[in-house]
Amino acid sequence: MTMAKARIAVVGAGLMGHGIAQVFALAGHEVTITDSVVGSLDSAKTRILTNLKDLGDDQSAVERVRPCADLAEAVRNADYVVEAVSEDLALKQKLFGEIERHVRTDTILASNTSVIPITQIMQGLQERSRALGTHWWNPPYLVPLVEVIETQWTSPRAVAWTMELHAAAGKKPAHVKKDVPGFIGNRLQHALWREAIALVEHGICDAETVDTVIKASFGRRLAVLGPLENADLVGTDLTLAIHNTVLPDIERRPGPSPYLERLVADRKLGFKSGEGFRRWSAQDQAALRARVLQHLKKARASDA
Ligand SMILES: NC(=O)c1ccc[n+]([C@@H]2O[C@H](COP(=O)([O-])OP(=O)(O)OC[C@H]3O[C@@H](n4cnc5c(N)ncnc54)[C@H](O)[C@@H]3O)[C@@H](O)[C@H]2O)c1
Prior knowledge:
With about 300 residues, this protein is of the alpha/beta class. The protein is about 50% helix and about 10% strand. The structure holds nicotinamide-adenine-dinucleotide (NAD).
């Protein structure tokens, strides 16, 4: 199979699936997309076209996307299948079992699960060496990272091919060498969230202040200065001294914060209920979503 023009099948045409199809089509690949919900499949090309227009990308890319209601037909000639259906282990296992019956033995199979171990999803396959995880971030056409997760069975060839496929499509693939919960990005993100919640729980500051501190300080640098680059920049000796003082005091409970559990029990669910750590009017929500989108678009433009 050639890398320049691969046949790609995307299973699941929701928030992530249509965006993943868009990225591959824009990179010149032929893409089939399937979904069990007719409405979701029918609107996929319209959603992709709207995104392409909004981003100023080549709108003819949408012509390389072929919606296909039948799973077997959608995956039959694929070199690469990526699954982006709902986050449900039994559903994903069942789908991959079915997909495997219709593809070549060397077709690479990827799951875009957020948190389910790839090993569990792929364990029932006949040919597990071609199966791996590809964890995209939302929106797929604006956030560069795709974590490529290998299991104990994945062949080096499947990893290398997938890394190259995503790099050639303009993504930043990161190789995750062991299938650990949360992969790399979500482990780092949620280590930070645990401490953020603890600061509020222990009355050190309110939720808005936590976010202000991050956004106005190291958050400003994070896109260009990762923590380990930063540690080298200030010195590993200084990092060690800081850790000796601070780490004993940082939150390290192995489960979720009772503060978070209380919010959920009180149905303070964030945007969807109008209140979570903070209160959110409809205007606040729209403004925050718009700010994030604008920021990501600017970052993409400056990458180009
Ligand atoms: N939303 C995110 O920010 C994000 C980020 C990274 C990874 N993910 C993961 O990506 C996957 C998809 O998430 P999403 O946010 O796009 O969800 P979504 O609900 O927007 O889309 C899921 C789609 O799967 C379809 N579907 C369900 N069962 C199906 C089946 N049997 N066959 C074909 N299609 C089926 C649904 O109709 C729906 O269109 C999940 O595993 C999720 O955890 C999501």
